[in-house]
Amino acid sequence: VIDIRKLYAQTGDFTYDPGFTSTASCRSALTYIDGDEGVLLHRGYAIGELAEQSSFMEVAYLLLRGELPTADELKTFSTTITRHTMVHEQLAAFFRGFRRDAHPMAIMCGVVGALSAFYHDSTDIHDPVQRTIASHRLIAKIPTIAAMAYKYSVGQPFLYPDNSLSYTGNFLRMTFGVPAEPYEVNPAVEKAMDRIFILHADHEQNASTSTVRLAGSSGANPFACIAAGIACLWGPAHGGANEAALNMLREIGTPERIPEYIARAKDKNDPFRLMGFGHRVYKNYDPRATVMQKTVREVFDALKVNDPLFETALRLEEIALNDEYFVEKKLFPNVDFYSGVILSAIGFPTSMFTVLFALARTVGWVAQWNEMITDPDQKIGRPRQLYTGPTQRPYVPVGQR
Ligand code: ACO
Predict the structure, then answer these.
(1) Is 331 a pocket residue for ligand 1 (Cβ < 6 Å)?
(2) Nearest ligand 1 atom to alpha carbon 207
(3) Of all protein residues, whose CA lies closest to atom 4 belonging to ligand 1?
(4) Over the stretch 148-181, which tens digit does the pLDDT of each residue have?
(5) pLDDT value at position 240?
(6) CA 331–ligand 1 middle distance (angstroms)
(7) What's the predicted TM-score (pTM) here?
(8) Quick one: residue 164, left, alpha or beta (phi over 0 = left, psi -120 to 50 = alpha)?
(9) How far is CA 361 from each of CA 87, 100, 197, 210, 367, rounded to the nearest angstrom?
């Protein structure tokens, strides 16, 4: 009888690293994070500068192509993306197969996964031209699909894209516009939304990006890989945290109730965690949260609203950052902490928050997928395991057990 555990001990050729806390699964030139210093760079550019000065289309180009575009390159790229914003008409019928009360992320998983059935002329991963077309299709169609998921949930008709608008303006119109009335994109909201997309564009080997790479490593087509990423992103420990964070703030309600929730977050017998707090890599303030906090004020000013939940969030942050537990564990607000307050002010229901994250992250997923496919070291992802089950034993017929 072979003692499998003994065998492992003898071979000793792998590392047991649950959650991959110290294993680099790939090499990448896209994104750099210094979690101790709270630094995030895309191709060498600081996230704060990109969020302040560039546009989501520029960042998409940067991540995909490696350099910031010239004015002409940006125009050509934006036009190319714009030309792919329509989705196959048959896809609308696909939406109608879902219940109206389905979570939009459930719809996203299904519809994006179905794209390979509609665009199988761009699924040959060995053909660079097809890879480029698939990349453009995914980036261009995701806002259309996200807006359709929203429209379907509220029972309104789908709106075709209006390609005279910007990427983000077009998305806002497809989401909030109605056919009977003209829709004017609010420039401040458009800018804030574009910035939110920039903040979510890529974040190196997080769970959903690793999922996209792992799915892609087997040679699966890009549409299927992005659908896998969307499924992973949905979890409350990852992209679902923005929805969970706002729900938490609503539950807390007023600043007076914060200490009760802080106590719960510290209680090891209570599964409750402060949503939008803590990060696997950042052991300092998430630089995206800094931009997000500033953007809340801009959106409130533009829309002339003032959600008291923002005050609750600010107070919660202040209390947590002065609490020994959070200080010792280096738990700071992450990108999801303030995003819900902004998205809610713009008019999105909480169920759409993770959809918006998926929309923006599609750029990163697509760039990471392309990088992986063209990496000469690329292999099928196949982690090992530390077997903890029984050693080999004889089969006992059912009548004798
Ligand atoms: N509230 C209270 N305690 C926390 C929190 C939190 N939000 N986050 C971590 N901790 C505690 C843990 O209980 C643990 O304590 P212990 O050492 O006494 O057991 C310690 O801090 C370390 O936490 P881990 O879960 O081991 O850290 P990990 O790196 O695996 O998890 C994660 C990171 C998932 C983000 C975690 O901080 C968390 O659950 N946060 C809330 C959800 C959230 O905001 N997710 C969004 C992440 S950003 C993104 O995906 C875009």
Answers:
(1) yes
(2) 50
(3) 273
(4) 999 999 999 999 999 999 999 999 999 999 988 9
(5) 87
(6) 8
(7) 0.93
(8) alpha
(9) 19, 25, 8, 12, 10
Band (15; pLDDT cuts 50, 70, 90): confident
Q: How many CB atoms lie within 10 A of CB 32?
A: 14
Compute CA distances 256 → 320, 327, 341, whole Å: 14, 21, 19
Closest Cα to atom 10, ligand 1: which residue?
Answer: 278
d(Cα 44, Cα 267) in Å, to the nearest integer? 40
CB hemisphere CA count around 224 (13 angstroms): 15
Helix extents (H) in 201-283? 207-217, 222-233, 241-252, 258-266
Question: Can you tell me the distance from the alpha carbon of 341 to that of 300, in angstroms, rounded to the nearest whole number?
Answer: 10
Sheet holding 45-46, edge to edge: 31-34, 39-42, 45-46
Contact criterion met (CB below 8 Å) for 48 and 292: no
367-380 confidence digits (pLDDT tens): 999 999 999 999 99
Q: How far apart are CA 321 and CA 293, in angstroms?
A: 15
Q: Residue 387 belongs to what H/E stretch?
A: none
- Smallest CA separation from ligand 1 atom 37, residue: 278
**Which residues does 174 contact at the CB level (< 8 Å), separation at least 6?**
143, 144, 147, 148, 151, 158, 159, 160, 161, 162
pLDDT of residue 37 exceeding 60 = yes
ipTM value for the complex: 0.96
Phi, psi of 251, deg, nearest 5: -65, -40
Which amino acid makes up residue 154?
A: V
DSSP class of 67: S
Cβ atoms of 356 and 196 within 8 Å: the answer is yes
Q: Which residues are catalytic?
A: 279, 336
Cα–Cα distance, 144 to 108 (Å, whole number): 11
pLDDT digits (tens, 9 = 90+) for 233-292: 999 888 888 889 999 999 999 999 999 999 999 999 999 999 999 999 999 999 999 999
b/e map 313-341, b = 16+ CB within 10 Å: bbebbeebeebeebeeeebbbbbbbbbbb
In the structure encoding, which two tokens stand for residue 286, read together? 């998430």
